[in-house]
């Protein structure tokens, strides 16, 4: 028996246990051994994370695909796992140590600290996995992986060693994003640009050979900067090669104020003649753009800051080289002064010498670490890099050739722009938690890269014997006796960027580099579902690594979903206080309601504006299905053995079979095309409007009437259509559908493993040949590249039944609409005249007279050659239906009311259009505010159109 009230929490807990106990989501089930694989790898969430709305959207869409393909008979592997999240996890544990007043990381030492991190991971690292299960994610949880599992770590080490051997990993001194609080390089993704109100300082740099005079512009050149403290590391001044003001100065020197270093004026197009003075200071060691300018002109790189963001001038050979006498005293005075304190003191010193021309308020973007909150410093340091440019070429070609496609396709442009302008990828991090770089240093700094320390020792001893640093005998002794080689080589302390291990995720999770059968069966994967913000950081790097090591693309389709914003269209953030917690929504409305909301709003290329009211609305949708299923159960509706819906005799029952088949096609095609919103919209309309509002209502007289063959058939069809709904809705709302299937379908087996309503058939020999020619030499039936299965589309249709029931529904709907427009009270019954009716209408109308009268609130239905005077005319499927409303409606008062409403709509349209025509408003207002005005205009235009239609009907009647 179905419980009276729909309680999502009870159902979700019970169904989760049922799925887990039955191994419903396990890949490689015996019954799927010969099935075509379908593989998705989960974007591994940080082990420190908890479910946020982006996770909820991303995993809901993946789950729809996986449940859909599982029901289509595929051997589905949805590979789950988590990322070790280097910085995030290390910060969590360090903060925990501090809160408990325990020794910090440095005091504990590396080994003890890492033990503590693993302990934390064992205790708290499964939080997000459990939350994904609450969402209903149908991953093969038995295959859960962690980026620092032994097998995955082995893959990481192998990849590093092989890329280094091939010259694709190397060490270099370049600028990185440096976090002065965490004391590590960080990726661009971990940098947040924050708008800051600061200043722009215009500084006078004296021209060499001229006596500096603040009043004489011929004795100096003016440069503008937001960072006066970095001027100590200036090694050039750049002007545009076509800027006439500076033509005679190109190639000459200026004297760096306070420091006295002579630096060259160079011509470079980076300088913009329209901005500031047209001349810019070049500090190659402290600015990414200046670094490139410096490279183009061979300028020195002088780093004047240390790792903690303090001036580092004493014993700084790069800084002190070539300085005039007396400059060392300045270096001593400012040594180890914090960068922001130094800024103030340096400006004061510059002002005292007349080197400051003016200071202007200046609002600009300043990079901050997303975790530390510290201002990020471009910092010149030795790091490990990947030659991403070389690896990117095959990855670009794979998308250009169509081997891998983006959905929506416009994201390919973003992919190309990033990949074609790719820079060396900095992969080293100055952390302890992560994959330690497999590089060891000899006594002279020589680097030995190897998979194990023993292998590195072997290489090192062989090298130093050959170089005659040690004798062959010493080499043999050290090889045999660990104590004798203690400290001979030391391992690099840095760890790898988290994205390095994530880049291997599609194949490392399958057991590579071992010759695991899963690699052969499930790689390459079929689809990747991810957000646009990590196309470069994760997607592109998986493409590069997959093609390099597996010689195949890692996935054939990349579906990029949009952002989930608040209901006004604003980006969610803690500072705005508009973050919506998906777990709170699950607690209140159930996981199914949240999932359906996200799917229904996931239009390609359009951000989701999430309102709690939408989630509540889809909870009501679930309740509607629940109540309809209870109604069916209470009326003894069940599918008898051998029932064939195509053989139904009753027009109403043939109609619901027709509508079910059409909906099945629509949902199937929409999911295949990643149009999740269209699929959800189609099934929603079928459940709420077609099945509940019309089919069940139209079937009630039969179900509540005396026993008859028609009643038996209707009972069977009500249950059959309900079961088809449960199948179609299952990928979107798995919990309620599985529960109702178990309670009402009365069949063996889980709904999660039941066949999809649109049957899949084996392709013919000719079709196989065609697919093989299109896909290449691989067999499309055993290759995951074969994404689009072949179906038998000879499913049920009955245009005649659709024409009859469709006419009944359209007629009732239009009459109800007119009654609502004209404020006719529910208790007031009106007449209906079918004017000039066709033979078909005259034949079908009597069969439905009682139903139409009851549902449309009519007193009677009659036929006439033409519509009577004073009647509102409706065009229903090409024929006229008239409602005589003279004496029922005050036409004059109704016209006045409609005119007034049209005036209000016009005012709303004018108000919105006035704002949208204001360029200043559109340029300065928040994006969500502008979008809200557009929506107001569209709503007002739609309202006006409906009012005009009602007014036109009224004019015809009067």
Question: Can you tell me about this structure?
Answer:
- It is a single chain.
- This protein has a four-stranded antiparallel beta sheet with strand order 6-5-14-16.
- Helix 29 (839-856) links the parallel strand 26 and strand 27.
- It has 958 residues and is α/β, with parallel strands linked by helices.
- The protein is globular.
- It is 46% helix and 16% strand.
- It is built from 32 helices and 29 strands.
- Helix 20 crosses helix 21 (591-600).
- Residues 775-794 have low confidence and may be disordered.
- It holds the Pfam family Anticodon_1.
- Residues 895-957 form a coiled coil.
- This is Valine--tRNA ligase.
- It is found in: Cytoplasm.
- A motif ('KMSKS' region) lies at residues 571-575.
Keywords, separated by commas or semicolons:
single chain; about 950 residues; alpha/beta; four-stranded mixed sheet; 32 helices; 29 strands; about 15% strand; nucleotide-binding
The 3D shape can be described as globular
Could you give a short account of the major beta sheet?
4 strands, antiparallel
| Percentage of residues assigned to helices | 40-55%
Strand order of the largest sheet: 6-5-14-16
Total helical elements: 32
**In angstroms, what is the radius of gyration?**
36 Å
Give the strand tally: 29
Please tell me the overall pLDDT: 91
Spans of at least 5 consecutive residues whose pLDDT stays below 50 are: 775-794
Q: Termini distance?
A: 56 Å
Q: What share of the residues does DSSP label as strand, in percent?
A: 15-25%
SSE-based structural type: alpha/beta
Family: Belongs to the class-I aminoacyl-tRNA synthetase family. ValS type 1 subfamily.
EC number: 6.1.1.9
Subunit structure: Monomer.
GO molecular function: aminoacyl-tRNA deacylase activity; ATP binding; valine-tRNA ligase activity
